[in-house]
Nucleotide-binding universal stress UspA family protein
Amino acid sequence: MMYSKILVPYDGSEESKKALEMAKTLLKQDETIELVILNVVTILTNPYYTAYGYFDDPLREEHLKAAKKALEEVGRSLKDLPNKTQTFVEEGNPALAIVDFVKENGVDLIVMGSRGLGGIKEMFLGSVSHYVVQKSPCPVFIMK
């Protein structure tokens, strides 16, 4: 089966870097395959800002800026590929955001690491990748 749009959820972890490399290998087979890189930022907003009606949480802005910068670097590393590539930053729960993104954007293959930068969550054997495998409407290629 040939794929037309591949999604790589990217958080900067070693396993997401491996997933990106695998996706690049797949892209080299056909330059019509589109690559989409998605970074999902989980931001625990400071209750002070929401309680007092402030919408500009400096911590939130800092996290979003860092995610965009990381994806700009990834984008530059993909410039040699003839394939169409796009990068997106979403906010929220990574597992839910990945599955929603796939459903809304016609992705037909996800290439992702088995674990990311989840800290304590990693005790649960990659809870994000587990959820995505269970709920994704398309095949999921897991990199270890």
